[in-house]
Amino acid sequence: MRDVAAAAGVSLKTVSRVVNGESFVRPDTAERVRDAIARLGFQRNDLARTLRGGGRTRSIGLIIEDVANPFYSQIARGVEDVARAGGRLVISGSSDEDPARELLLIRSLCERRVDGLLIVPSQTGDPRRRAELIAGTPAVFLDRPADDPAADTVLIDNLGGARTAVDHLLAHGHRRIACLVDLPEIFTARQRHQGYLEALAAHGVQADPALVRTGRHDVRGAGHAMTELLALPDPPTAVFAGNNLLTVGALRAIGAAGTRTALVGFDDVELADLLATPVTVIAHEPADMGRQAAELLEGRIRGDTGPPARILLPTRLVARGSGEIPPG
Amino acid sequence: MRDVAAAAGVSLKTVSRVVNGESFVRPDTAERVRDAIARLGFQRNDLARTLRGGGRTRSIGLIIEDVANPFYSQIARGVEDVARAGGRLVISGSSDEDPARELLLIRSLCERRVDGLLIVPSQTGDPRRRAELIAGTPAVFLDRPADDPAADTVLIDNLGGARTAVDHLLAHGHRRIACLVDLPEIFTARQRHQGYLEALAAHGVQADPALVRTGRHDVRGAGHAMTELLALPDPPTAVFAGNNLLTVGALRAIGAAGTRTALVGFDDVELADLLATPVTVIAHEPADMGRQAAELLEGRIRGDTGPPARILLPTRLVARGSGEIPPG
DNA sequence: TTGAAAGCGCTAACAG
DNA sequence: CTGTTAGCGCTTTCAA
What we know:
The structure is a homodimer. By secondary structure, chain A is an alpha/beta fold. Chain A is built from twelve helices and twelve strands. The first copy, chain A, has helices at 2-8, 12-19, 27-40, 46-53, 70-85, 99-111, 127-134, 158-171, 187-202, 219-230, 244-257, 286-301, and strands at 59-64, 89-94, 116-119, 139-142, 152-156, 177-180, 212-213, 238-241, 262-266, 280-283, 310-313, 316-318. In chain A, helix 10 crosses helix 11 (244-257). The first copy, chain A, binds a DNA duplex through residues 1-2, 10-14, 16-17, 19-20, 23-26, 29, 44-55. Chains A, B: One of its GO terms (molecular function) is DNA binding.
C-alpha cells in the first residue's frame, strides 16, 4: 500500500480511502490510485486491516466429525449459506471424534480470531478444557449438547425419532428387534438407544440385551455386528440402525446373509429409495441444522444477548419398504 | 499480552518467549508467566503474529462447486488430511459453478493471505480475471484445468474412463447407447462426452444425436432427460451417465419407467452395490485427488520451483450388474 | 479533500 | 536469562 501511494503520488491514507470506497476523494485522484493499484497488482492485507480495526475477521470456524460424511457435509453447506449471507468464510475441520484434535482445532481457530465457532462436540474429552479455550468467542453447539447449560444448542429429536422407528417396527408385528448404535459416549447414540428401549417398554416388549450392539462407529463395524446378530440361534426379525453409516453396514450384512430382515435407519441416505427393498428411515434436514446454528451464531456475533437457545429439530418417518417387511 | 506481562511482572518479550516455547527463560519466570496467562485467559493473536512475522497464515483456501456433493466433500477430506499434516487449516467455499462467486472467494482468500489456493475452476468466467486475482498466491487446480499451462493441475482420466464405460456397454451388445452429461462448458463433461463418441466410433457404431443429452447439471435434470429418452419411439437400451448426480437421476427415471435399461455411471456412488440391480461404475478416488493436489500445493508453498505438474488419476470399471444387462 | 502521526498485538534484532 | 526498540500493513484520529 505504501508502494501504491508512492506510485500514485498520494498519501497512504488516500489509498486506504480509495480501497475502502470512502468518499471525500477527488475522482481524478481516485482514478490515479486505482491505476497504481492495477499496475502493481496490489491486494489489501486483511490481517493488518482486522488487526488495526480491532474488528472481525469475517470468518467462522466449523468443527465436525468428518467433512466427508454426508451428514456433516450437508451441515457444512447449510452453515456456509448463512455465513456467506453474513459476509463470512467458513474454516472447517474434522475432529474425527478425537478430543485432542478438537481442542487443537478450537485453539487454532480462536487464535486466528474467528468471529464465532460452530461445534459438534466430541464427547470423550474434558468439557472444561474446551470451555476454557472457547472463552470469549461466541459458540453454538450442533447435533450434541455441550456440558454448558448457557450454550446455544441445536439438536435433532433423537429420542422421538428413535421411538418412532421402533414403534413402526413393533406396529408391523416385530418383537425381536435389534439395535445398532454408535459409541455410548456420544449423546445421539445414547438418546437413540434410549428411544429404542422406551418404545419396547411402551409396548410391553421385553428388551433382549443380546440384540443390542453399541459402540459401532463405522460401516464395517456395523456390518460385522449385523452379521453376528443374523447368525444368532434366535435372530432378530428387524433392526433399528442408529445412523447413516450403521444403516449402510446393516444393509450390506443383510444383503450378504440374504435374509428378509426389516430395517429402519436414523438419517436419510442417498439412493435409499432405489434399493432392492427401499429403505425406511427417520429423516431430518442436516443442512437446516447447519443453517439454524449458523443463524444463532450470527446473532451472537452481532451482540444478541438473549437467553441461551436450545432448538430441537423434528424428524419424520419415511416409509419406503424395508420398515414394512413383516416378521419372519 | 501486555496485560500478561504486567501481571507477571516481566516484559512483553518474555511473555512472547514463554508463549512460543523459546528457550532461555528461567523455569520460575516461565511458571509465573504461565500462571498469568491462565488467570487472564490470554490467547495469542495469530493475526498480529503473522503480520509481524511476515509469515504464513498456515491456512489454505479450497474452492469447490458444492461442499455437500459427496464427490467434492471427499476431495475436501483428502485436502484436509494433507493440510493438517502441514499444520494448516482449510477455508473452503462453494462456487456453485458461478464465476462471480468464484472470483469473490478467490479475492477474499487472497486478501486473507492464505498460503495457497486449491481450485476447481468454474468454466463460464474469464480465466484472465481469475489469474490476475491469484497472482502471487500459489495455486493448484483440481478436476478441471485452468487456462494456464503453467499451473499445476490434477485431473481424472475422463476420456479413458468414459471410453471404458461405453466400450463395456458395446461389448455387452448394446448399440443404442444414450449419453447424459453435464454443462458443455465444463471440461469433464466435454471429455466424457468425447470419450463416449470415440468409443462408438472405434466400434463402428453410428452415434445417434437424439440419444445424447448434454447440459444436465443435477439429479432432477438428469431424471427428466432420462425419462424423455426412455419414451422415444426407438429408446436406448443402455445409458452412460456422466457423473454421480446424473447417475442417480438416471437410475430414478429407469426405476420409474420400469425398463431393463443398462447403465454405467462415472463416479462411484454410496450404496451402488445394494440397488435392485447393483450399479456398474467408472470409479476413482476423489480423496486421493484432494490429497495429491494438496501435496503439490504444499510443495509450492515450501518453495518448490519445478516445472508445472499435471497429474492424471486413473479410473477403473467396477462391474456390479447394471452395466451387464443385455440389450432389450 | 488530503495528510501526518499513532497504534492494533505481536516478534526480530539487538542490547543488557 | 531478560528487556528495549522498531516495525509488519493497515486504519483511526486529528490537523491542515
